[in-house]
Amino acid sequence: MSKISKFFKGGGSAASKGRGGPSPQEALARLRETEELLSKKQEYLETRIERELAAARQYGTKNKRAALQALKRKKRYEKQLSQIDGTLSTIEFQREALENSHTNTEVLKNMGYAAQAMKKVHENMDLNKIDDLMQDITEQQDVAQEISDAISNRAAFGEEFDE
């Protein structure tokens, strides 16, 4: 079965049909295949246009009917080429949108994993215990500051008199 008939008849793996749709990777691969196919068709049409133009020049004024037919074919090929350009543009837009959606999905999944990890980390923490701990730390810092102040005061041996 040719690539074109697979594309239009929806040919795909049986696994993707059973799951309710293709995976993003499968869809991206098919879009890339279609882009490749259309690019080859573009190249073919461009060579055909050049041939018809050369034929029209060759016939020139000698055989006007053949020259006109060659120019008509050239015009038809140019119209097909223009349609393919539009289709390629649409496929490229679709592929980029799909890639962005896939990236967003992965980011969202990873953010969910991170949220679960944070939840697991915080499940052993009690807000009251944290408040008590912070008060203890503050008290100990105050005691340490008092000790530091007491040590750092200059000893004034004999300067202080008790009246």
From TrEMBL:
Membrane topology: Peripheral membrane protein
Region spans: Disordered: 1-25
InterPro entries, per database record: Snf7_fam
Superkingdom per UniProt: Eukaryota
PANTHER family recorded: CHARGED MULTIVESICULAR BODY PROTEIN, CHARGED MULTIVESICULAR BODY PROTEIN 4C
Similarity annotation: Belongs to the SNF7 family.
Protein name: CHM4C protein
Species for this entry: Herpetotheres cachinnans
Gene: Chmp4c
